[in-house]
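for the writeup, i need someone to sanity check this before i put it in the appendix. the sequnce is what the collaborator sent (i think, or maybe the updated version? ugh). structure was predicted straight from it, no edits. if anything looks off just tell me and ill rerun, i have time this weekend
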Amino acid sequence: MNRAVSSVAELPLAPRQDLWDWVIVCAIFLGIGTLAYVSLRTQLFDHWVELARQGQWSSLLLRPTILWVSMGTLLLVFRTSLWLKYRPFPSANATDAPLLTVVIPAYNEGRMVEKSIATR
């Protein structure tokens, strides 16, 4: 049985998104947009806007609330973008699976494992 071995793994196509994926994505971006609208259009940040207009930038930096809100929003946007880009690889079926699998638990021993496998 001649089985061609390829050194380059073929990447599977991204799975088709169903309706629920789009509903969840739209709900997340609608929520982020609502948070941005509420924070910019209501009186929530009026105090800090007034301090900025007066040129009291040190007061803005000393207030941790604005930093927490900013970092939380950035983290939310970053995690959402990572979540949107993530697509898991499908599991290997019996025909694509390797004939032998070797699992060697090691921590920072990559060179030593390679040497051990090469000498056997």
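Helices lie at 19-41, 46-53, 57-62, 64-85, 110-119. The two ends are 24 Å apart (CA to CA).
thx in advance!!
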